[in-house]
Write the structure tokens for this entry.
Amino acid sequence: MAVQDITTYTFKDIFTLSVVQFEKACVVNKPEQIDAYSIYWIKEGKGTYNIDFKSYTFNENVLFFLSPGQVFSVDSEKIKEAYKLTFVRDFYCIQTHDKAVACNGVLFNNVYETPFVKPCENDTKKLNFILESLVDEFKSDDTAQYDMLQTYLKQFIIHSVRIKKENYPIKDAIETKLFKDFSVLVEQNYKTLHSVTDYANRLGVSPKSLTKNFQKVGAQTPSDFIKSRIVLEAKRQLIYTDEPVKQIAYSLGFNDSAYFTRFFTKAASKSPLQFRKDY
């Protein structure tokens, strides 16, 4: 979202609501690395955004969700009305609230699926009401403002999860739950654990059962899943740090930088240094 003609409400630099109401064509080519949880609601507009080196084109009413560390850039956009919510973990911890809200690995920290959610007319009315309530609360100076703002944010996230589940059914079947548990576990440990056996042991299943589970839900193999996450982080570090390849390899759990280079080149079709040069 281009930084222009934006009204911003902030609570102690840990929770922010930005309101965008203009209609201008805009191109932003420089990628940025997200440092806070972000919710974008493009209520009226269209454009093309790049998220973690993949391009997504949208039109009209759409929500999408970004987690810290993800790479984001704008190819093009023409926005008439949009909103952006940003918050840090100290304000609202999605892991702590996951049992009740179930957004971790569905809306946030989900680097494997299209991050868009499309609300219907009734959904839009509900989300609008929450945003209006948020603006009123930001403008007030009453007691327990922190709690009220957090409650409205939680409501917004819950409605978004419901929309996501309605459009992309998330079954409660054992195999689907195992897939989500695996993906969350990988997100937490991909820098130190690289083998399918390590994750299978932590999940209390055999590597063979885990592989069969992935086949049932139509996902890539567990091994490819782990490799994809490691390569994604390598790409992020190659672009957003000046660390030498050897240090990046070490930070991702590789003791042999030459092996890491071969690993990355096979997955990305170019060497780490060539990838950094191209970007």
User: Anything to note?
Assistant: The domain at 6-167 is CATH 2.60.120.280 (Jelly Rolls). The first helix runs from residue 98 to 101.
